[in-house]
Amino acid sequence: MAVGKGAPKGNALNKEEVGKLQTYLRNVFANKTVEVRARERAGDAAEVYIGGEFVALVSKDIEDGETSYQLAMSILDYDLEDEA
Predict the structure, then answer these.
(1) 0.85 cut: is pTM over it?
(2) Strand arrangement, sheet containing 53-63
């Protein structure tokens, strides 16, 4: 996978990581429709979809030799009103 212009090479997500993240999130959410898709132009994050709908971004962070992954999900206030 090509590294996007803004992605430091060390923080770019590779194909293997995307697959592992998808498996992990499917297990955590007990939902086989979770998909993690590499972004075409930016290798610094991947998009997370559930049931075909975009729900979050996941990015890699390397600090002090340790790697972690951050899941960022935005929920708009009007989305909450639809669920009430």
Answers:
(1) no
(2) 34-38, 45-50, 53-63, 66-72
Domain segments of the chain: what residues?
Answer: 9-83
Q: Which residues contact 31 (CB under 8 A, 6 or more apart)?
A: 50
SS3 84: coil
**Nearest in space to 59 (alpha carbons), one of 24, 3, 11:** 11
Torsion of CA 62, 65, 66, 72, to 10 degrees: -10
pLDDT in tens, 16-72: 999 999 999 999 999 999 999 998 887 789 999 999 999 999 999 999 999 999 999
